[in-house]
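Thread title: Can someone regenerate the structure for this chain?

I was given the following input by a collaborator and told the matching structure tokens would be attached. They weren't. Posting the sequence so someone can regenerate them.
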Amino acid sequence: MTMTDNKQTQAEAPLNRDARAAMEAMNAEAAPLNIWLRTQANAPAQKAWFKHTGLNETGEMARGRVAAGQTKALPHHWSWKEISPYLTKISEVAKNADIPPTEFADRQQFLLTNPGLGGKLQVTSTIRCAVSIYNPGDVARAHLHSPNASRTILSENGGYTTIEGERCRAARGDLILTPNGTWHDHGNDGADPVMWIDTLDWPVLEVLDCIWLDEDAPGLAGNGRAQKVTLPKGYSQALYGMGGMTPRKADHRRGIGNRVSPLFHYKGSEIREALSAMQSAGERDSHEGTALDFVNPVNGEPLFATLGYGAQMLAKGEETAFKRETASTVYVCIEGRGQTEVAGRTFNWEENDIFVVPNFLWRRHINTGPGNAILYTMTDRPLLEKIGQYRAQGMDARGGVEQLVV
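Best answer:
Regenerated them for you:
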């Protein structure tokens, strides 16, 4: 045995009972000093994710004092048929409230909570999601904040969001960005309620103690809540929506945020058209179906440094191969129906359903509907890539594991 081997063996040997008791006694003594003496009995590491061999495994919790208070996100499915009635109930409360509807608009939503995260207002360790409803005439106050955020429109009438003077009028399937440091307000000037999913990187900023909000927007118009529209209709799409072409002279920075996309509005009709064209061209990934990513048109990077957005189309009867990755992903069904198998569970989804696949877990998708199915995705992959922690594996038909991203 070499000296290195001997040191390794000694390092792995557990403390004997007397040594462990002595260490814990010292910990009790040192507690008033707000320190903790680490012991091997409190090893924090969980088993390496790629050592899990079964499809049904859901990950394990780390052990010991270092991991005290740790929670782990679980796969979960929110059925639209079950959760959407609460939007109607919230809407009715708002209509009957003793305060003006505009005062209630900011609060007409519910947040999704992951059953594995102990009541935290988040769906994964890095992502927060809420579902909002705006009644006709509702307006939310102009504000800006440090988290990045987006709206995925679920209703046919999408209302509008004004961002840095650009009015984005939305429809079902649209994705509207409100990047960090941009002034934005929302409203519904139509005849029917507006419903959408709010997605934010709030938990990441919360861990960094970098959450802040500003509601003192300069030059508020009319009722003192909404921005004045200062840019022509479709401004950011006119500049950046051509694909592969960007203006030379334009100032690509919008607001006071850093490294965010200047294109705010991605239209559902154009997303579907792009997916259909890719599908017709034979573009298909065995683990994802026909898939695309939304990127910053100036530099080709993800829309946000912390969150990535995409869309994927599954053809009638299509089944993807199993895949797992170190990133977590939230899905919403925009069209069709199907099922996703993840960690021994099967989620049967249909339009507007939301489900989450946490990191490390094997999953595959199956289209069970009569036509194409379209899923939108929100993932923390960009953040994992930036810190050098993104990995992905796939599984072939024989159960063999291949490295997709190492």
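The chain has one domain: 77-405.
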